[in-house]
Amino acid sequence: MTAKQDDIINRAELLQQGIATLQLQIQQIKASGEVAPPGCCVLRYQARGQKGTYWYYKLHATEPIFPATQPEKLTKYKHLGKAGTPAHVNAVISVARRIQIDYLQSCIDSLRQNWVDLYESLKEKK
Q1: DSSP H helical segments within 32-85, as ranges?
Q2: Nearest to 36 by CA among 72, 73, 74, 65
Q3: Of 58, 57, 75, nearest to 66 (Cα)?
Q4: What is the band of 122 on the pLDDT scale with cuts at 50, 70, 90?
Q5: pTM score, whole prediction
């Protein structure tokens, strides 16, 4: 085996180790609690009542995924209530977990592409 081939093998192994490390981090995040569905965010909205104006929060999805008040219907919103309620705080943390997982997954995808590029460059040299 040549020094170049050894170098390529070593770099491929490092890429695989990086992927494994990131996959483990994703598993740990998932194990730490609820993860929001993809594309969700927490939004603040204003409601007016008899005693004034209030701020409330909702989990917003890009597509209807949450159960609606009508049977067998779905909505884009899950109402969370006021700031600091368990539902509100849990939703914010679950969205944070989703963002972390999505970022780690994009890093894994990038490393996988780098691995493919590494071996394609080896083929081109032959």
Answers
A1: none
A2: 65
A3: 75
A4: low
A5: 0.86
